[in-house]
Amino acid sequence: MNEQEIIDTENSLMANVFSKKPIVITRGKGALVWDVNGKEYVDFNSGYGVALLGHCHPKIVEAVCQQAQQLITCHAGYYNDKRSEFLRKLTEITPKGLTKAFLSNSGAESVECALKLARKHTGKPEIIAVMGAFHGKTMGALSATWDKKYREPFFPLVPEIKHIPPDNLEKAREAVSEKTAAILVEPIRGEGGIRVTPDGYLEGLRELCDEKKLLLMFDEVQSGFGRTGKLFACQYWNVIPDVMCLAKPLAGGLPLGATVAREEVMASFKVGDHSTTYSGNPLVCAAGCAAIDVLVNERIADNASFLGLYFKSALLELQAKHKSIKEVRGLGLMLGMELKFDVLNVLLKTMEKGVLVLDAGRNVVRFLPPLVISKEQIDKAIAVLDSVLEEEENARSSGAPAN
Ligand SMILES: Cc1ncc(COP(=O)(O)O)c(C=O)c1O
Q1: Which of 92, 102, 134, 358 is the most exposed place for a label (fewest CB within 10 A)?
Q2: How far apart are CA 164 and CA 242, in angstroms?
Q3: pTM for the complete prediction?
Q4: Ligand 1 contact, 324 CB (< 6 A)
């Protein structure tokens, strides 16, 4: 199929739920991807944070190829060597005490599991989530997600899930009732605009949950696995939740979600309470083992720390130059740049110039590059952003449409 045929086929045969960008990506290596015409892009999107180790990391490719010849599928009703190995590796890196996991296939599923677990463990129905949060789009996860454009078309949602203003401990305390089972929070709100929770907030939630006997549940689907410079973002505040949701980069690009919990919390689930056919699929677990090995042995999270500082200071320099940049924020290589206008044009123009970036809400350009990105590739992105912002600012100040 040529480029146009590929585009036409997806447009006509695939549910029209994704906001598509007009390129066809067919190849990737490290922090680079190529389109069907051979044009190269530096990838600061990495599939919404999935390709954290880089595209087609050789160790992931090798693990997948080997396992594909051995055993591709094995229901969790039977034991499997790769699943056991992955569970060991995973619970070796999760924060202390989070030693029991349910494996699924996506971030939303990891949240669904957490919501059910909270109800089962406490016998109470109510979940407190945060305004601005994003937890996925399946019915339960969607009910905890904040943005009304995602929620309203699907009312009625799962009952007894309510939202509190972010980063406000008083409001959290006021919201707790006799019916509350858990508080669910992202240590850094990703889709919500790369907003880092302030010091003291997660610590305060931990105290509140201990006092009221609630479960504290962190959604680290986007912030986890080294993205912020620590293995898990909650480690910046030394706060350990009772339940943690993971997905995106966990298997080097293959679909894998994990809900990890304290042993006695997960013990509330009895046989049949929760499942998915693919839970702990050997092929995905083989990729997951390789991903954890690379993350730990090659100290990939350290890259996020020092490259994150390098990138953030370059973005702050851009801010000093461009009045259209309102704020630069984030931790490690989970960064956001809030603009004074809609970012769609910036996304499309940087793409034309060979750099893929993401949005996070209408005004925020989001950067989730592979942690193996180079300083030169960061420099390229900064140069491209510089010129695109200049074009946008000029177009706006002259009143001409910025296209
Ligand atoms: C924090 C967070 N939780 C959950 C999800 C949902 O993950 P998925 O799209 O894999 O269902 C996302 C996706 O962006 C996310 O960022």
Answers
A1: 92
A2: 20
A3: 0.98
A4: no
Separation CA 17–CA 10 (nearest Å) = 11
Angle at which helices 375-398 and 300-321 pack, to 10 degrees? Answer: 30
Query: Phi-psi category of 50—alpha, beta or left, where left has phi over 0 and alpha has psi -120 to 50?
Result: alpha
- The whole-number pLDDT of residue 399 equals 76
Q: At 194, list the tokens.
A: 């790369």
- Give CA–CA dist 381/356, Å, rounded: 9
Residues 6+ apart with CB under 8 A from 73: 278, 281, 282, 283
From the number of C-beta atoms within 10 Å of its C-beta (0-12, 13-18, 19+), residue 17 rates as exposed
Residue 14: other Cβ atoms inside 10 A: 10
What string of DSSP letters covers 300-335?
Answer: HHHHHHHHHHHHHHHHHHHHHH-TTEEEEEEETTEE
Cα(203)–Cα(16) distance, integer angstroms: 42
How far is 137 from 69, CA to CA, in rounded Å? Answer: 34
**192 touches ligand 1 (CB under 6 Å):** no
Question: How far is the centre of ligand 1, averaged over its atoms, from the C-alpha of 383 (Å)?
Answer: 30
pLDDT, averaged per 10 consecutive residues of the chain (403 residues), comes to: 97 97 98 98 98 98 98 98 98 98 98 98 98 98 98 98 98 98 98 98 98 99 98 98 99 98 98 98 99 98 98 98 98 98 97 98 97 98 98 88 54
Q: What pLDDT, on a 0 to 100 scale, did the predictor assign at position 400?
A: 65
Pocket test for ligand 1, best of 135, 137, 138 (most atoms within 8 A of CB): 135
Which active-site residues does the annotation give?
Answer: 134, 219, 248
CA distances from 148 to 114, 143, 145 (A): 22, 10, 8
Amino acid at 176: V
Of 349, 323, 354, 336, nearest to 402 by C-alpha is: 349
Contacts of 74 (CB under 8 A, 6+ apart): 80, 83, 280, 281, 282
Whole-number pLDDT of residue 353: 98
* Residue for token pair 């799962």: 158
Among 387, 76, 39, 49, CA closest to 247: 49
Nearest CA to ligand 1 atom 8: 107
Residue nearest (by alpha carbon) to ligand 1 atom 13: 136
Helical (H) or strand (E) element with 120:
helix 107-122
The tokens for 365 are 């350009």
